[in-house]
Sequence to fold (832 residues):
Amino acid sequence: MLRFARWKVASILAMTLVSIFLIVPSLLPADLRSAMQKALPKWVPTQAIVLGLDLQGGAHLLLEVDSSDVLRSQVNNLRDDVRRILREENARLSGGIGIQGRTVQFRVPEQADRNRALPKLRALANPSGSALGVVSAPPYEINEQPDGLVQIVVTDAGVNERVRRAVDQTIEVLRRRVDALGTTEPNIQRQGADRVLVQVPGLQDTNRLKEILGTTAKLEFRMVADAGANPGDVDQLDQTDQPGKIPVEKRVMVEGEDLTDAQPSFDQRSGEPVVNFRFNIRGGQRFGEATSANVGRPFAIVLDNKVISAPRILSPITGGSGQISGRFTVEQANNLSILLRAGALPAKLSIVEERTVGPGLGQDSIEAGKRAAYVAGILVFCYMLITYGVFGIFADLALAIHIIMIFAGLVLLQATLTLPGIAGIVLTIGMAVDSNVLIYERIREEARAGRSVVTALDAGFNRAFATIIDSQSTMFVAAVILYFLGSGPVRGFAVSLGLGILTTVVTAVTMTRMMIALWYRFGRPQKLPI
Amino acid sequence: MRTFRLAPDNMTFGFMRLRRVSYPFSALMSIISVLMFLAWGLNFGIDFAGGTLLEVRAKSGTADLTQLRGLGDRFALGEVEVQAFGGNADATVRIRLQPGGDAAQQAAVERVREAINTDYEFRRIEVVGPRVSGELVQSGTLGVVLSIVSVLIYLWFRYEWQLAVAAVIATMHDLLLTVGFFAVTRLEFNITSIAAILTIVGLSLNETVVVLDRIREMMKKYKKLPIPEMIDLSINAVLSRTIMTSTTTTLALLALVAFGGHVIQSFSLAMMFGVIVATYSSIFICSPILIYLGVRDATDKG
Fold:
């Protein structure tokens, strides 16, 4: 009991000092901290505690890629490929190429035609990664019936692979869009098979964020259909700024992916907000050809299947640039140009979960958490003091270091502190003294049984230790389960609870033991103060 | 120096006699909990029920609750629950899950926002779609089941079967009463409530382990003593610690309830209830079971 190895004392002091160093940057104002980060060498810890979105305010959006949309475009692409191959091989079809769910089917009556086309179709079904030695399941399955019916089915593996790629692409596009909003440190990550989590701290206007993230932004330039056009080649599309539908040809002249730039601007004559854009070479050429051939006719600028405007082609547009006007507000023109620059999403996105906290409430929560922690600390502090006297002071000192260590642990792990996380810390203020209480009560009991001061102290620490490990490990198991199941705020609770349990073993057991050993060595008391 | 004590030293209170009171009492409470749970169910928050929660603050300083309640009829959103809290300016508006999937939730929020945007500041917006709430129900249930299973495994290795059975019954008792607490008080049951319940399981086990450890120690020491007296002796020995710890924990939680803010109030309240029930059950529920299970035989053999 009394002998306490020097290295133990030294390492405990070192741990405490390191902990204090770790939390100092979090207490400084942000500008001083960033100045420190620049001035000090890299190994000096200057990171602050990471606050959760519920404390610093911000938006948390869980978006889901529409898998059926992905499948639909995959099947459509497959049909286009089939049509191209059959045409290239001069295979004669009987009837058209039909789509049913995830199956593309057609009938090629001649055996010779089938023999030419099928190897090429089979090549489509070879998984794309096979050349690199990555063996994956084929994306398509081809069934050939004796009567010439060929069915190509998109397999589950094919759909999954496409959804995975769509999510990757979505993340890229969303990152460009969020970056264009000029926010600091957005977090965009994949979640599960078909979801993307977007967290943007400190954002005031989440409405705009939602608008920018949720829009597919598929831009198309198509001709407005003539009155005599074949109804099968025409879509009736809604307009953005007025009721009624416009007949638009199905054929697309140029798509948004051929844009190289888009900027908001004002029309020189009317002064209304517009978006100026530039095509790449291919887009410029196609647009030039199409407008040359259709001078005098109106064409439609279509965004996500809605007609923004349908201007008349006055003269061929061959310069590779143009202007979109559609009675925009300034903000709409800004948003549209961000969307066009960032590119279109591969599939529809829907918001499946939203949690937004305004900066005001976040600040209030921090204040409330602080107040609760102070009050809890003072109450427990006083209670320990009046119950255990000098030993209570030791426990209180250990408690203070325990709290410092929890925060240091949060900084070290760069774990996120949330409001439930603060609640977890407050809870451990109450529970941390449990270990001290177990030890002290045991010491009292041993002393009452007539043992000397030293033996009572020794027995108290030794016998209580097993129980402390037992009781703390049950709480730790609960914290671990919570960590793996919870998300966001709840996970923050699990982290601070778990950290609190670990540090309490260090502070309440080892540190108090050291303090009591020192106290005994210098005071040589004949009686225990508790 | 004379120090302050809640439990006097050398107490020899006959806790085991009280089982004739505590058992019917706990049985009654458990039955009430089950009945209330079955009859009223839990007041599921949007995490599990889906829907929308808006926290608004009136720019004028006074929230017009009638106007907010009227939003439901105005936009055909079904029942809209409005609750004022804090000062006059703050209120929460809860909109039920709208039929029509994830897009319908966003559309409802959009309409409400447009209607009251000029008069109110939006301090918090939470929208949980139907699928996400379903998944949260799954992971919440999984969490409770997993924690119970890990408790069982832990106890299986740690104790003789009589002690383990006693600990399981005590933990289940605490779990049941906490669920009953949620059902009776109509506190919102959210994903943080699951966190509270798992923590209560941990706390309950913590209390139980301390008592059982001591009983086991006493069993070896006083082989001749009748079981009820031996258990009373053990409980009296750990009583001051049990009271001390639950008092400090309750004090900390009290601070959270009073000052921690409305966002985590139901979490703190549930936890406080859990601490008190866990302390009660470790003394009055867990230990007396050992009398019925004949704990002495087991330790003699093993």
In short: The longest strand of chain B covers residues 120-128.
